[in-house]
Amino acid sequence: MGIGIVVTSGKGGVGKTTTSANLGTALALLGQKVCMVDTDIGLRNLDVVMGLENRIIYDLVDVAEGACRLQQALIKDKRFENLSLLPAAQTKDKSAVSPEQMEEIVTQLKREYDYVVIDCPAGIEQGFRNAVAGADQAIVVTTPEKAAVRDADRIIGLLEREKVGMPKLVINRVRSHMVKNGDMLDVEDILDLLAIDLIGVVPDDDHIIKSANQGEPAVMNHESRASIAYRNIARRLLGEAVPLQPLEEKAGVFHKMRKFFGLK
Amino acid sequence: MTRFGKFFKQSRKKVSVWRMVTVEVKQVTTVKSKVTIKGTKEGLVFFMDDTCSFDELLADVREKIEHSHQQILSGPLIRVSIKLGKRYLSSEQQEQLTQIIRQKGNLVIHTVEADVITKEEAFAERLKTHFSVKVNTIRSGQVLEYEGDLLLLGDVNPGGIVRSTGSIYVLGHLRGYAHAGISGDSQVIIAAAVMSPTQLRIADVISKPGEEWTKHSGGTEFAYLENETMLVAKMNYLPRIRPELGEKKA
Lengths: 264, 250
Prior knowledge:
The structure holds two protein chains of two kinds. Chain A is an alpha/beta fold. Chain A contains twelve helices and eight strands. In chain A, strands 3-4-2-5-1-6-7-8 form an eight-stranded mixed beta sheet, with helices on both faces. In chain A, strand 3 and strand 4 form a beta hairpin. In chain A, helix 1 packs across helix 11. The N and C termini of chain A lie far apart (55 Å). Chain B is α/β, with parallel strands linked by helices. Chain B is 28% helix and 32% strand. Chain B has a six-stranded mixed beta sheet with strand order 5-7-9-11-14-15, with no helix packed on it. In chain B, strands 6-8-10-12-13 form a five-stranded mixed beta sheet, with no helix packed on it. In chain B, strand 3, helix 3 and strand 4 form a beta-alpha-beta unit. In chain B, helix 2 runs parallel beside helix 3. At the A-B interface, helix 7 and helix 9 of A face loops of B.
């Protein structure tokens, strides 16, 4: 029996879909059998980020309504044999699926896959309730902004009432130079407020935008710093103890010398 | 006459009154009446029978005050305590009773006590001394509401709300909203280990940090009302500002 993990945030635009796509891919790269489920009915994105949009035939709503079998709706990713996607419908809205139906679908998927990564829509309404229904664990994504942290706090409060237990925190899009200048909330401030376990800090990286536009998950790139951060999150999920990556670029000898002479 | 001499004379006069009273007591107890009057150091105590009807009681009090006990019930001012026993009197009935005793100009009613109270009063009394302990983090959008005093072991995050009819004590970081004395009690306080709230309310006074009071000092602080304005002080000022706060619970 696999594990259902919901990726949620409350606020929109903090990187739920990016995190879902990269976490799912990273877990698949680590040899786990992974199925990603997009629950953002009406505003589906996960298929676009994964570059699988053109292969959709059936979707989540079709499965829930019994218009097709679950296996027919799953899209196998040709790049990673362990990875599948259950896309959301684009023409319906969140009320097209009930939490009970979601729970049933995720339970079916868990029988076959090691990890079911559920991409949650923004907000705290029906879409959120659907996404959480089948999950055993939760990952809360936030950015170092007051509004995002506030919404993450609200979501954690709501998750406490569900059966998902204590959620884990991903802090996304951290800009080290802004944190250093005190213009951005730092990791300690956020943890102090939210009081949950941190599972990863992802630096702000242009490569994420580029790879999302190309329909290739960022973790496929080995040089991107965000990619390494996502791989580390996947390894931590599997129970490995991976230390947090330093947020700053490691300063080279040349840089140190310049600093020594007061040139920087 | 010297000041001492005057005082001496007065106290002697008092002593003579008490002697008379104790003599009276003997007479009263021999007659089986509804009202027993006893003299004590503090003044007269009226013990009311709690088995007879209220009308009988009133009649007997009237009889005693107007006719039979003229000699002790005149003279210098005497404090009177009324003990009702296990009889519950409505406020109108109490008024009727005290009216009769007040007829005598020298009787000052000090207290009216009964061994019984209504359920409502008992409930209100219990709430006053009610103290709850809650272990939780109050996150954005969550509301914690209590009757009586509340001790929260945990943080109140921005957007989180704590409301209570009594005082609120937060053993953690208060960053959200706290409203103490929601039913109008202005003597309550809001205390926090780390005080940096979004907004504080005590009774119907609303205050935001930076308006009436400046940013927190970093230590344990409490907010209270003084002349309809909210003030924040360090915890070590509490015994001076609200010394009665702890006694209420005893």
